[in-house]
Write a structure and sequence with these properties.
The chain is an all-alpha fold. It has a single domain, classed as MetI-like (MetI-like fold). Helix 1 packs antiparallel against helix 7, helix 4 crosses helix 6 and helix 5 runs antiparallel to helix 6. The longest helix is centred in the first third of the chain and has 41 residues.
Length: about 220
């Protein structure tokens, strides 16, 4: 391991890291928006929209992100829709993530006991009040582990962005290896920067899960 090479590469990796982080989190936010909308449609079984949402979920969950990016970046221009690589990466990641988020949030909604809805209605709450104040908070608490796992999965999937010529972390590592053959140093920095990107998400997810479960169910030490 040549520390001088590592030090000289760090500024290059920082630039690639910031680009990867930006596109990755834009994709994650888009995934959350699509996931919430999709889960809402499936939970309330809205006519027509439910079938379309189910088709979207199955399509994107069962095809690789790389194929989706190729279609968006290389296929859509043939139809007259040309977008740059950064937008393509964010949109592709968001569409893939939205399919996973939809299922995670929907499963959380379905896991809330029906008696919760019945109790809320008996107290005079409207359907919207029941959903927003009773069902959704509990569903979110139940879904947190799956949502955090999806976020980590999506951020790791940014490694395929190099296929559409984005100067992300993976592209930078492969480029430097190809130019200077400093494989060990390049891969070492690649691992370090991915850890810097993903580890805080994992820790934050664990903390949020503990706080949410404590607020919803207490510390669990006081049984009946």
């Amino acid at each position: 391991m040549n520390t001088e090479v590592v030090n000289s590469y760090i500024p290059i990796y920082v630039k690639a890291f910031l680009l990867t982080l930006k596109i990755g989190w834009v994709g994650v936010v888009l995934a959350f928006i699509l996931g919430i909308a999709g889960a809402f449609v499936l939970y309330f079984k809205l006519p027509v929209l439910s079938a379309l949402t189910r088709a979207y979920v199955e399509l994107f969950r069962n095809t690789p992100l790389l194929v989706q990016l190729f279609f968006i970046y290389y296929g859509l221009p043939v139809l007259g829709f040309k977008i740059n690589a950064e937008v393509c990466g964010a949109v592709g990641l968001g569409l893939l993530g939205g399919s996973y988020m939809t299922e995670s949030i929907r499963s959380g909604l379905d896991a809330v006991p029906k008696i919760q809805t019945e109790s809320a209605v008996s107290l005079g709450m409207s359907r919207s009040q029941t959903f927003l104040s009773v069902i959704l908070p509990q569903a979110f608490s139940i879904s947190i582990p799956a949502l955090v796992a999806n976020v980590i999965f999506l951020l790791k999937e940014t490694s395929v962005f190099s296929a559409i010529s984005l100067m992300d972390l993976m592209f930078t590592a492969k480029d430097l290896i190809g130019l200077y053959y400093n494989t060990t140093e390049s891969l070492f920095l690649l691992v370090v920067f991915y850890i810097i990107m993903l580890l805080p998400v994992s820790f934050a997810g664990s903390m949020i899960e503990k706080k949410m479960r404590f607020k919803m169910f207490g510390d669990g030490k006081h049984g009946i």
